[in-house]
Fold each of these.
Amino acid sequence: MAGLTRTAPPAATAARGQVTRRPRRRWSPTPWLFLLAPLTLLIVFTYAPIANMVAYSFTDWDGVSPGLHFTGAGNYAEIFTRADLFRVFFVSGYYLAASAVQITAALYFATVLSFDVRFRAFFKGVLFFPYLINGVAIGFVFLYFFQDGGTLDSVLRLLGHHGDHAWLGTSTSANVSLAGVSVWRYTGLNFVLFLGAIQSVPGELYEAAELDGANRWQQFRHIIAPSIRPVIGLTVILAVSGSLSVFEIPYIMTGGATGTETFVIQTVKLAFQFNKTGLASAAAVVLLLIVLAVTWVQRRLIPDDPDRKAEPV
Amino acid sequence: MTRRAVARALVHLSLIAATLVVLLPLAVVLLTSLKSSREMADGSGALAPPDDPFNVGNYVTAFQDGRMLTAFGNTAFVLFFAVGGTVVIGSMAAYAIDRFAFRMKKPVLALFLVAALVPGVTTQVATFQIVNSLGMFDSLWAPVLLYMGTDIVSIYIFLQFIRSIPVSLDEAARVEGANAFTIYRKIIFPLLRPAIATVVIVKGITVYNDFYIPFLYLPSEDLGVISTSLFRFKGPFGAHWETISAGAVLVILPTLLAFLFLQRFIYNGFTRGAVK
């Protein structure tokens, strides 16, 4: 959101201001012809599924048979009362903690690399690249990393630490390892977002601060931090909804075994393995509501920056 | 040493450490992909270099037994239609929304806006039933349509860019007798080129990497895209890490090349894409 409009050339915005658009009150089919395909796809693949999902969530439908029964809020009660179903929320905790690590690391590297450092482009590229890699490939890279006698064990042996720890063997260790992979994968995106925001601060500000004798920490505290607050807010909401909807990495690496099952893995299994479409729909509705609530809270807490007023929406 | 010099040294140290953390797991997989199964068994450890650095045997196995060629073909098909469709649909939607005043414009806009907040993973339970009832389950058209129909970010990128194209251009063309479609095709679309480049790159990488949708909708082995085909390495190659590694390297390599050549576009595209 932030920084978007900043990129629009001022001349263009000014030119727009002068144009008074011809008000066309007469109904014309033209815009609708252009919107036909986009709107059809939007309704068929986003809104119809949401409506159906809400409807299924009050039934015991199995996804295949023609018959279904209305069960009221039974599915919702089941999600919040069955301990084995509710447990997946605790797994999200690992990913939430990982997000905190990830945001801190991204902030640190963005700050450091916003100053003149040798090989800056190289470090930027290296930090960002994991974000572009295919999730299945990342899954395999890290299965080998945590494998008995794999990359991690070999490195530890090199450092003089012997011992066989089955990294994906126990619930805590597996979840920490998987959350670590998620830090490895996503730090780069946060880092690039932060770096972009920091670099949009005019350089004179730093020079002035330097003249006033501000050290790096003070520069961070008083110049960098305020300028990237909106981006941090955005990142935090992405992190929260992201840690609730983790799927790829744990599914590829452990398939949800040893207590690494996440909310989405559980939903996918309920729907497509156990044919509990009704229950899975209720779970999906709960997740959707949480994500929307988090977004709403974030919008309330961090008001749009004045820039955004120029946005069409 | 002054304090500043110490600080600078520490900063460099942290950057080097981060580089190692990022590159080491990838480098080891590259090494592993070049080892023979005998080398894998002799217990020389994951960090040992391969005997023959030009041993491409595992890559041949990955291509032949792992059906990576089919996978790249299917991915190319999906990429072509999904990305092409996204560009056409996104630019049309942006054109209609920005250049016309019509009743219901606000609700239409809100429809797109709210959809951007809905995480795709949550709705697949019900989307699946719709795709199934359209007879597209286990067809390459299912991911194509899903990628095309659920991409709100591209519409935003186009919307933002189209606003910087002066309306006077449209007006001039209209005076000369061009209709709305001609204006879109001859004036707006060509001028959207930078936005199209951004959308193609961001969408292309997202589609190339997606696992969830092909995993749900393309169970046939013949319809494997690179993500699902690589995922299937898990079964037959079980403990053959050298083959799995070769497969992973094959999948990562195109991304690395794209990144090296298109770096600037990629940074811009993903920052815009993420902050919608």
Amino acid sequence: MRLKIPLIIFIFWFETFLFAAEAGMPQLDSEYWFSQSFWLVLIFLVLYLSLSKFFIPKIKNNLDDRENRINENLDEAKEFSELAEKKNLEYIKEMSNAKKDVTKIISESKKQLDKNINQKKIEFDKELEKEINKAEKEILDLKKGSKEKVNKIAEEVSSKIIENLTGEKLNDSSIKASVEEISKNRIGKYL
Amino acid sequence: MAANPMHQFQVYRLGPEIKLGNIDLSFTNASLFMLISALTICLFLFFGSKQKNIIPGRLQLIAEMFYNFISKMISDTAGSKAKPYFPFIFTLFMFVLLCNMIGMLPYSFTVTSHIIVTLVMALFIFIAVTVIGFLKHGFKYLSIFVPKGVPVVLLPLITIIEIISYLSRPVSLSVRLFANMMAGHTMLKVFGSFVISLGLLGGWLPLTFSVALTGLEILVAFLQAYVFAILTCIYLNDALNLHH
């Protein structure tokens, strides 16, 4: 610290001494004023001409090109998005139409199916009734025929039995009458 | 040794002496740095506009940023009528900015730290703006000295003040840039020369301060170029659009 302070004082003194040696503002020395003005005007003029004739139009072109390109792209994008919107609407329309068609087809086929089923059922019912009727009639016929046959067999059997027992031939009509009478009373039990 | 903070502003001849009659037009270090600035601008804009990429590269982006920056500044302050003057203001801004910035390099020369340079530019702008004003509006241009809505009693005084302020435009414009540049660079130099001696006491602090000051000076370099350009736009606006 003891050494530092004299050192600082010495450096300050040295610097002031140097400053004093070359005092004043070189800016106010008019020796090169004309030279500076001349070169300034010359260089500035050349710079101005080269910038205004060459560089600025080039930069402007670049910027304009970019802007045009961006605008074009934006327009294109807008067009495409409109197209997409349109297509989407079309798609939605198609879809709703298709849905309508589907429901229509479903209901129609259902109706058709119902109709068919009904018709088939009716036909089948008719057929069934017919068959049943036929069967009933057959049964009835069979019933009727069997009764007569049974009666006839009974008559024959009874006339044969009586003939064998008595040796006499009885009147057929009387036998028939008695058989009929018995069968009338008893037949209900079996047929 | 260049310990004098003013030594950096010294102009000296490079190469042979060029004389036109009695006038010395020699190529100096100031001319050299003007040339370097101009060439840097040209190189920068050349590489910034060489490729016509839709997605710009770094240089192209910066060049277009400057273009848009100046374009917006002009349309904001002077309106659409000032569009023909865009190349001039763009050149002016780029030139002042590059002169300031190249002046920030160590051992270089700051062109804009000379009053004669800034004065020539400011005078040119002042005369051009005045001529444009008279060409556009004729003698009606003088009405900018008579503001509207001022009481009649105050009118003579206001008019005199307006005239003085109008005439002092080139002085204020040139001195602002010159003084900022000169003061900034002198300050950098002075603080720079104290870094070692004060560093014995304060350690790294003086160096840190010097670095921070350099950052500030870079900001000032940009800001002064911007101020120079925007004031030109404002003067142009006064000349183009009469009512303010």
Amino acid sequence: MTYQFDFGWLIDSLPVLLKGIRITVQLILIGAVFGVALGIACAWVRALGPKWLKPVVATYVELIRNTPFLIQLFFIFFGLPSLGIRMSELSAANLAMIVNLGAYSCEIIRAGIQATPRGQFEAGASLAMTPFQTFWHVVLVPALQRIWPALSSQIVIVMLGSAVVSQIAAEDLTFAANFIQSRNFRAFETYIVSTLIYLALAILLRQMLAGLGWMLFLRKASR
Amino acid sequence: MTEFSFWDILRNLLLAARWTVVLSLVSFIGGGIVGAALLFLRIGGRRWARLLSRGYIQLFQGTPLLMQLFLAFFGIGLFGIDVPAWLAACVALILWTAAFLAEIWRGCVESIAKGQWEASASLGMGYLQQMRYVILPQALKVAVPPTVGFSVQVVKGTALTSIIGFVELSKAGSIVTNATFQPFTVYGLVALIYFALCWPLSKSSQLLERKLDVAHRNH
């Protein structure tokens, strides 16, 4: 192998990379907040919601979990305009991530809810809590605490999966890498650098989610 | 201007879906072999082997599959080989699958009670004998549902190989869209074909899990 590695382009390309990182971080923050919220709503439907809505949610979850994220993205960005629904690259990427994480987190949260003993619903009711209050305070919070590690991993997986939004020209980190390597012809080095950035982001995100979990659940419990 | 009927679209997509299936099988089998090697390193006695395997798994689980595909595509090229897309796709998917399978299987091996290791050690068995006769037969049973479940991720992962130019179902979807200007129909069909491939795997994983759970309770 006579290849000479060259990382000299890195300094000039830094602003492009930073912008890509910013968009990727922005995508995952919005995606995580709304995706988990959607997941909680769907889990509520599957546990206590109206009967007619249950099969709808079940179909949504199964459809999303058994198709690739790339195709969901293409369907939203290229397919939906045929129905008159148009959106920017970033909105489409955000929507796809929310819809995707919503389905996965629904299943994860549902597993946590199912582990709640039946008696706790009844105990909540006997304390004159409304069904919604019981769901929120008695069922959901302990369920979230139970499944927090699984939910965190799923959020990290969605973050890593977001690399494909570059395919609809959303200007995330991968898009930045593609742009840079088309200028400097140093494809391998460019992708090594962006892979390492993704690795750092994944480790950071995992730590942040662990910290958030501690803030949400353990600190409360120790008080 | 050629007109494309619904049947033309479906037929072309189904023909391309063969490559999705082939690539999934290759990645899964290859990933299983490499993953088993990683597993033996990961739970074996040697410290450097454990660290090496752990680092490998964290690296591949902590980076996007798309980046791994790009690196395989351009990395193999550094050796002066003209890399066809299928080769890069196979290499990246096998390495990626291996990392996940090794981690899943490690969980299964660790779910076997420590007493089993000690009992087999006290019978004078070596590491490989312990694995062969005591640990693996039990761990394999636990491992089946999550392994089948992960195969769904592999099938979905193959969609990314379209980005480096391997013509499978997703790439065919893009090509057909460009020819027919019917993205809604085409991507809808592509999604349904993926669903038809993945859903039986998901369902059987769930069923196996339930069956195994019953077996567990009867102990």
Amino acid sequence: MKNLNKSTQKLIISILVIVVLYIVMAVMESTGNLSSLMSGLLVPVCAYSLVAIGLNLCVGYLGELSLGHAGFMCVGAFTSAFFSKAYANTIPDVPRFILALLIGTFFAALFGFLIAIPVLRLSGDYLAIVTLAFGEIIKNVINVLYVGIDSNGLHVSMKDMMSLGLEPDGTLLVNGAQGITGTPRQATFLIGVLLVIFALVVTFNFVNSRTGRAVKAIRDNQIAAETVGLPITKYKLIAFTISAAIAGVGGVLYAHNINSLTATTNNFGYNMSIMILVYVVLGGIGNFSGSLIATVVLTMLPEMLRGLSNYRMLIYSIVLIALMLFNWAPDILKFRADHGLTSKTILGKIKKTKEVQ
Amino acid sequence: MKRKMLSLGLCAMMTASLLVGCGSGNTEGSAENVETSGELTWRIGGIGPTTGGAAQYGQGVMNAIQIAVDEVNAAGGINGYQISFNFQDDEADPQKSVNAYNTLKDWGMQILEGTVTSGACAAVSAETYNDRIFQITPSASSTSVIEGNDNTFQICFSDPNQGTVSADYIAENGLGTKIGVIYDSSDPYSSGVYQNFATEAANVGLDVVATEAFTSDSKTDFTTQLQKCKDAGADLLFLPFYYTEGSIVLTQANKMGYAPTMFGVDGFDGLLGVENFDVSLAEGVYLLTPFAADADDEATKKFVATYEESYKDTPNQFAADAYDGVYIIKEALEAANLTPEASNEEICDALISEIQNVNYNGLTGEGMTWNDKGEVSKDPKAVVIKDGGYVSVQ
Amino acid sequence: MGFLTYLINGLSLGSVYAIIALGYTMVYGIAKMLNFAHGDVIMIGAYLVFMCMSNSGLPAVVSIVIAIACCTVLGIIIEKIAYKPLRKATNLAVLITAIGVSYFLQNMALLIFGSNPVSFTSVINWEGLSLAGGQLKITGNAIVTIITCLVIMFGLMWFVKNTKPGQAMRAVSEDKDAATLMGINVNATISLTFAIGSGLAAIAGALLCSSYPNLNPYTGSMPGIKAFTAAVFGGIGSIPGALIGGLLLGIIEILAKAYISSQLADAIVFAVLIIVLLVKPTGILGKQIKEKV
């Protein structure tokens, strides 16, 4: 462990923490000590974490603000759920889920790639608005997409169910705004945790690879990077595609944990994109473990506040603003540094007391 | 270094906030709960949006269930046991709805009355089916809610029922020769009703001349859709969506000087309750509703009076369905002669069989019965708005 | 004739987007932040006008003046509490706080005003113009909104060009540090920008709800996003750009609904936006940003 460099140590620690948390949760669940609410939240938290990791790669390392990551999540969710539902009775569970995972990831990556080609020519807020636009287009199209299958094969319509012309024996797979119902429920906490760890390892390796260093160089100074002869577009494309693919994995997980998959503003629209951005910024831009912690806290928080009934979301928004100020406001940070309130000194104190014990 | 410091600082802060969160989470129960700690009670849960864009529907349901529960408790409860009631917010989102359901499960819910919206309900009914908890939804009308399970029942008309009945009614009464349709293509409820309407319209030979859609992202401006219907010569507009958008459609049609017969479904109920709405615009609007807040019968009067007194608002059809729901559960539980000591599964199985024998007269219909699929059979009542009130038409 | 009708409808919708976009672009141009809470300030403004007019029976003009005053104060308070402490932090941090403020305003309004929608009485009692023998109708709302837009636009342009605080704003938007060296109070200038932006939101709220008379706590969020799109479309930071962006967005939306597909109208609007930005990467009237080496 001592021989490894600092960032590798950090990754290993993060993974160990996740594994320990997983074991704790799994033991609590099997002994019946975990509330239904908590155990129901485990998989969604993993799904959102994955999207947050994907977006953090984009915001933190590529340095571009994307407001469309819920769109990639949506693509991953719908393509994989479509596959799982279409082959629900023909392929056994395990290979089907693996295939669905691959398909969802592939299509999210494909969309990420296609969108990145035009988008990465832009920068800053213009890029943000274009990614938001793409996310909205994806959502809008899925809402009017009707797909059915019968003895004559696959029918697709962008208008309504009647124009599909399904035979009576046909089944409707995607029903417009009503989405996909009855996706086999295969996502488990174990799969979720494995995928999160996998995503962490992938992003870690990417960030520290030759390509990753090039991406960081581009982020810090595009013109300088260009002068050294780095192929800017290629590196940006790679980073954006990986980022979209990881968001797609999150989508697959999300889709296989819920019976009714619909594309609304709250779950796959700009609201969700913004929510994921909140996780990323609050957790620390460029800090993957921070994204995980922020996702866990901000997903749990509104559920924990349920006891407040009508005041729940109000308190939630106040906590959000307070957290942002606490962690980002220069004056508050200075105050914390002066009074020994930084996490470092706090952690140091905790360590000391432990040593004393 | 600074970044690391930041992130660590964050960890500490978040742990703290999580603890705070836990603290408040432990003080179980929202303001809507009936306090019955320690005592054996029926635990009925409710789920619906009380925040977010659909909040008015969820809050109506929550308030109405509260009224019914209070009444039942005052009259001695069900089989001698009081009811505890807990309502959770889902923001009309399927995932949040499942979270709300799990919260209620932790609370010890035995029967679920909810959820309010269709998309969320389909997600929750899969959960109740697995856990064997009886579920009855006041207002989720999509067929996907009751498909693939035996434990979910609807109090409202289903989408197919509404779409088909509307088409038949329009055809039989010759309300219009050329039909224009405007619907919300991003909403499961609206597109569900539309699909069934269009299918039946083709069967009964209605001439649909224009079909226009809007989405939740652009639901302020309906002038184009109205203009296209007008240009196509539609003399009747079928409007299967909620009254919130309905009030805008009516205002804009009026400004355009376009006055076809307007035909809404049950989502239009509540139109007259929109504060400051010029009810003369709604004159002559047909809608299918099982409930009229100004009906003359004793039960409705009493319910509306209590509701207005407690919540300073006129109840809509969502609320009336939810109010009925509590009494339907009561009737079925009494027929099954159960006590809260029974397990969830026993309650669920007993209710599934008993509800099919129930014949209930409530605010939203006479002689309501249920089949084994979970659909209610009650006659959708067509009403027309005259002089700012509902008038039944037959 | 059909086309003209759609065009006019598009203009009326676009004028509403434009007036909201003006507020966005104003704040962005000077403070360089996307104020996601702008749409919700609009909603608050509309509720204030509604309360004054329908509940207290005040005349429309008085109601709007009261709403402008209240929203200006609200804007200053929000800025002081939520944005000012983050002035030296990254832009993203302020963006997230703005989202927090947006949630806060929505939920506050939900608690105060309730979830049931209210029907907004138009502040304009004018039927509008009837052209071509009654075949073409331009509503009073649309005309007043467009005129208000133009007045505000020219007013703002005059203000930033010819007044002391306006010049300070331009200086701050160019270079904060240099402005400080020139003796400009940067903080006060940014606060002033927020105050003006929030005051404009009250007018936008009254006009938005006069055209589309449904008011609930979430009324502001969707037009807010659309207006943000419009501001980017026209070149964010550019005052005439906001007007042009708003009008074009409205017209494209209506024409897409009318001639292509009403189901896919949103997708078409956004697709056009993407194409325009690819051709002109800083929007229609946006300034070309030159990067320094």
